[in-house]
């Protein structure tokens, strides 16, 4: 899309750094969501917005080169992950979509809470990233 | 732990793997991998035959949504065993046959994926004890049948046939679903076993008869009973292995299964007896009568299948009468009809499966299945001919083939039913043996047509595209195994009777105690009795009718093609399309403003109207916290932004003002200490703005619209009303007390879900189901956007349909 291809040095320079900050922030939000603000949906959305920023400041080829994956598959993977955690509980003889949690002693982190919700939320996050980026890329590729 | 649940799931899992196998092993026909599935399942199930025969049943439950009483419960008993063995046994043979039938050029990964989906769904139908789960699998068989009929989807006839099958069986399925819900309303359970034990308390319930009719509608549409049979001949557009498997041996028998399974539930009512047996009889006659006129061998077999399904259905109807008399030495007589039904069910699968495969061989090797172009194949295709001969004679009811045994039992059952004293007219009972006999005569005639017209007489190689030659051994193997079974069952019928049929009888007559009484000794010779005389009559009259076929065939010309059920179906389909077009064009006029108007009007009427009607619009602001200065400022900013948007001169201005609104809401969330919502709102606002920028160049020019004053006034009233309703709802929600409070969940989120962030505890745990489905919806929406943009047809693209 030509209208967005502005040769803006400041924007490009800054966004190269900012993208990583946003990506890190997105991962942080995703992990912290269990007890403090954040979570799968918002984490996924922040990750997606980082990719959108990358796209706005450079162009579609650069995005495709730096992130060589098909975001439709990312979205599909997310949906499968979210759905299959539901089935996972059936294998343990409890009703569909039951979540559980427990506390473990991990080497570096000390006592850590691990929960099946995190897997579910990871599915949500991947689905959000995949869908948002797919939509944005397909609209922008379509334009002339 | 092994459970039957896995038997259902294995085909689905392998179906998901088929595309990978297909890609990985390009040189091996993917059918060989798939073949393992039904063979393994058949062996697993066959090993359970002795314990099932001794009366053992296997139940296993996985809880799915216990709060709604939906559980994935499987139940293996005698009845489901018969069907499961047919599904896996015939399935193995059909897949073996299909490996040679379908060349590697076809899209095999689709074919076997659909076939395995069907197999899993069908096993799900026969093993499910929970009605809701049964319904899901039931519809899944319709869907996979749709995909398989339309396998050659470049042909218009395939697509139309698939659509017809889908529309008819799915509408029946929905009727059945309503019937199931009625059963749940009556008995409070979705479990078939529980319903069978408690139904006797509810036979006077208002919903008993409607539930029965609706469940029967599902069974009749699936099993192609008159007048819903019209989909089956059109379904023959499918590849022949599919016709042999779905539309002869298994799927169409799902309706039979349902009727057999529900006989203990509804069978005590006389209406069940009448509806099932009369519909079965009509189907039996109509199918065999119409089969005679067909010139396409596959269409002939389709009508013959309809007719045979009618036969089994009517036998189940006749057998249900025993339940009305309770357990006694007299009523045992009538249970023999049910026994004959189950026996014929198996026999039909063997001989009809073999015949379908024979027709597939003719089609595959000679390029036609039209009897006007065939003839004289006997000496040139000896193996194919032998199988066809065995299959046809068994279908005609001649010894020494299994069809003879079950046909005799069928005649016996119709003769016994005359002795009943429930008929208001003494001579009315005669109708059953008479219809049965007449239909059997026609059956005999069309069986002779298969043998004489296709295989005997003079060969006509000039009418064929390919030279006449015998089929490869791989294709002959499966039909030969079935033909061997046809003969084998004739000589050892009681083995089948004891191990397979007897346990199924106790599923249908659970109150009858000792099932050994219910299992008659099947014998080929039982003296000169009415049924033997009827068979002899069938042969004599049938032979005469076949000899003089030319003389009486014009009788079919009397049936005008304008007044058939097919014409009715086409009329209903065409008029519903044009009708909904008229209605849709009325309001879908392409003006976004109008669409918003519908949404807003609906909102005002539904939400505002309901709350006003229920008197919920009451609020008391005296206990509210006082406003502080930030809030007032924010409200002022938002109001200014919203009002200026109306007078914006350019689209960019309007977008920015909209952004002001969005970010102000985010600040509100911050002030009210909802950091999660504030974060979400901020990011959503940013991403939406970016999306808007992307779409910017696609949008038309921003023009001032000159609307008449009247329209403006109406629009103004609607917007003010929407605003008013939203404000009122917002205010009165504080005092709304129609539902139980759910705050206890939030307060205990840390103990219940292990998370201190209650927003995420709700999203991921308490309401995890909602979130899961929302993710799926989001994904579907994304795919929708993608495919609308990427895959839209260009103007210069040629029309690839309607070949």
Describe the fold and architecture:
The complex is a heterodimer of chains A (144) and B (803). Chain A has 5 helices and 2 strands, in the order H-H-H-H-E-E-H. Chain A has 144 residues and is mainly α. Chain A has a two-stranded antiparallel sheet. The longest helix of chain A has 27 residues, at 116-142. The termini of chain A are close together. Chain B is an all-alpha fold. Helices cover 70% and strands 2% of the residues of chain B. Chain B has helices at 4-24, 31-47, 49-53, 78-101, 108-127, 131-149, 156-187, 192-198, 208-222, 231-234, 240-249, 254-266, 270-291, 297-325, 329-366, 382-396, 402-417, 431-455, 473-491, 493-508, 530-547, 549-552, 565-587, 592-613, 629-646, 651-671, 675-695, 709-732, 743-747, 749-753, 758-766, 768-790; strands at residues 58-65, 70-76. Chain B has a two-stranded antiparallel ribbon with strand order 1-2. The chains are: A mainly alpha (144), B mainly alpha (803). Chains A and B meet through helix 2, helix 4 and helix 5 of A and strand 1, helix 27, helix 31 and helix 32 of B.
Characterize the largest beta sheet of chain A: strand count, sense, and whether it forms a barrel: 2 strands, antiparallel
- Low-pLDDT segments, ≥5 res of chain B: none
Order of SSEs of chain A = HHHHEEH
Span of the ends, CA to CA of chain A: 6 Å
Q: Biggest protein-protein interface?
A: A-B, 56 and 47 residues
Tally of alpha and pi helices of chain B:
32
The coarse overall form of chain B would be: elongated
Strand elements of chain A, count: 2
Mean pLDDT of chain A: 79
Radius of gyration of chain A: 18 Å
- So how many helices of chain A? 5
* Largest sheet: number of strands, sense, barrel closure of chain B: 2 strands, antiparallel
Ranges of chain A where pLDDT stays below 50 over 5 or more residues in a row are: none
Percent in helix of chain B: 55-70%
End-to-end span of chain B in angstroms?
Answer: 52 Å
Principal-axis shape of chain A equals flat
Strand content of chain A: 5-15%
């Amino acid at each position: 899309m030509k209208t967005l291809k502005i040769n803006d040095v400041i924007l490009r320079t800054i966004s190269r750094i900012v993208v990583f900050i946003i990506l890190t922030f997105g991962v942080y939000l995703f992990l912290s969501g269990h007890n403090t603000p954040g979570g799968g949906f918002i984490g996924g959305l922040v990750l997606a917005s980082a990719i959108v920023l990358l796209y706005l400041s450079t162009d579609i080829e650069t995005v495709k080169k730096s992130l060589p994956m098909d975001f439709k598959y990312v979205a599909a993977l997310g949906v499968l992950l979210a759905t299959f955690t539901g089935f996972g509980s059936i294998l343990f003889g409890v009703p569909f979509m039951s979540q559980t949690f427990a506390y473990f002693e991990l080497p570096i982190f000390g006592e850590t809470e691990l929960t099946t919700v995190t897997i579910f939320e990871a599915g949500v996050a991947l689905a959000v990233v995949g869908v948002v980026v797919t939509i944005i890329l397909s609209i922008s590729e379509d334009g002339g | 732990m092994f459970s039957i649940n896995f038997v259902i799931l294995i085909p689905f899992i392998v179906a998901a793997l088929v595309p990978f196998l297909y890609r990985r092993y390009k040189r091996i026909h993917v059918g060989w991998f798939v073949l393992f599935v039904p063979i393994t399942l058949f062996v697993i199930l066959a090993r359970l035959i002795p314990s099932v025969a001794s009366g053992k049943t296997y139940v296993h439950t996985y809880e799915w949504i216990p709060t709604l009483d939906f559980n994935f419960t499987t139940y293996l008993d005698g009845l489901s065993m018969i069907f499961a063995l047919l599904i896996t046994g015939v399935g193995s043979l059909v897949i073996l046959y299909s490996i040679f039938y379908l060349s590697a050029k076809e899209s095999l990964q689709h074919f076997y994926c659909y076939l395995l989906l069907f197999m899993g769904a069908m096993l799900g139908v026969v093993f499910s004890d929970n009605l809701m789960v049964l319904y899901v699998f039931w519809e899944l068989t319709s869907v996979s049948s749709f995909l398989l009929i339309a396998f050659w989807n470049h042909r218009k006839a395939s697509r139309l046939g698939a659509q017809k099958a889908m529309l008819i069986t799915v509408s029946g399925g929905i009727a059945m679903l309503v019937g199931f819900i009625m059963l749940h309303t009556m008995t409070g359970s979705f479990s078939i076993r529980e319903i069978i034990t408690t139904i006797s308390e509810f036979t006077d319930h208002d919903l008993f008869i409607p539930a029965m009719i609706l469940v029967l509608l599902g069974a009749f549409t699936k099993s192609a009973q008159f007048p819903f049979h019209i989909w089956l001949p059109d379904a023959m557009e499918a590849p022949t292995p599919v016709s042999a498997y779905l539309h002869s041996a298994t799927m169409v028998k799902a309706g039979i299964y349902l009727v057999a399974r529900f006989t203990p539930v509804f069978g005590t009512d006389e209406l069940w007896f009448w509806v099932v047996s009369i519909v079965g009889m009509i189907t039996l006659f109509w199918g065999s009568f119409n089969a005679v006129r067909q010139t396409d061998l596959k269409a002939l077999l389709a009508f013959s299948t309809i007719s045979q399904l009618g036969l089994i259905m009517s036998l189940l109807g006749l057998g249900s009468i025993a339940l009305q008399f309770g357990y006694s030495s007299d009523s045992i007589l009538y249970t023999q009809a049910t026994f004959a039904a189950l026996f014929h069910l198996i026999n039909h699968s063997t001989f009809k499966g073999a015949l379908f495969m024979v027709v597939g061989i003719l089609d595959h090797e000679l390029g036609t299945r039209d009897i006007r172009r065939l003839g004289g194949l006997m000496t040139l295709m000896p193996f194919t001919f032998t199988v066809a001969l065995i299959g046809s004679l068994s279908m005609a009811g001649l010894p020494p083939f299994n069809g003879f045994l079950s046909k005799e039992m069928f005649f016996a059952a119709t003769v016994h039913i005359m002795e009943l004293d429930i008929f208001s007219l003494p001579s009315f009972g005669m109708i059953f043996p008479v219809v049965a006999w007449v239909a059997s005569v026609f059956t005999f005639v069309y069986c002779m047509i298969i043998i004489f017209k296709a295989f005997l007489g003079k060969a006509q190689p000039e009418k064929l595209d390919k030279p006449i030659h015998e089929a490869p051994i791989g294709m002959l193997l499966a039909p030969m195994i079935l033909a061997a079974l046809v003969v084998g069952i004739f000589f050892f019928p009681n083995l089948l009777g004891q191990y397979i049929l007897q346990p199924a009888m106790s599923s249908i007559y659970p109150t009858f105690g000792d099932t050994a009484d219910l299992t008659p000794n099947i014998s080929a010779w039982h003296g000169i009795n009415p049924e033997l005389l009827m068979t002899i009559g069938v042969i004599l009259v049938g032979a005469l009718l076949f000899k003089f076929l030319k003389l009486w065939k014009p009788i079919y010309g009397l049936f005008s093609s304008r007044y058939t059920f097919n014409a009715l179906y086409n009329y209903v389909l065409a008029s519903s399309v044009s009708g909904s077009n008229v209605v849709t064009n009325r309001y879908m006029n392409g003006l976004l403003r109008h669409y918003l108007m519908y949404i807003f009007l609906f909102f005002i009427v539904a939400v505002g109207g309901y709350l006003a009607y229920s008197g919920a619009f009451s609020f008391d602001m005296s206990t509210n916290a006082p406003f502080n200065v930030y809030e007032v400022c924010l409200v002022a900013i938002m109001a200014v932004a919203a009002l200026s948007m109306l007078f914006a001169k350019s689209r960019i201005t309007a977008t920015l003002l909209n952004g002001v609104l969005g970010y102000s809401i985010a600040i509100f969330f911050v002030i009210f200490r909802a950091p999660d919502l504030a974060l979400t709102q901020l990011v959503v606002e940013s991403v939406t703005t970016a999306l808007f920028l992307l779409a910017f160049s696609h949008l038309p020019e921003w023009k001032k619209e000159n609307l008449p004053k009247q329209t403006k006034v109406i629009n103004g009233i609607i917007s003010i009303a929407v605003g008013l309703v939203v404000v009122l709802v917002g205010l009165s929600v504080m005092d709304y007390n129609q539902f139980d409070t759910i705050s206890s969940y939030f307060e205990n989120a840390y103990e219940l879900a292990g998370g201190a962030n209650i927003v995420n505890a709700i999203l991921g745990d308490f309401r995890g189901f909602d979130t899961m489905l929302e993710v799926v919806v989001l994904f579907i929406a994304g795919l929708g956007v993608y495919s609308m943009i990427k895959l839209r047809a260009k103007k210069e693209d040629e029309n690839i349909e309607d070949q």
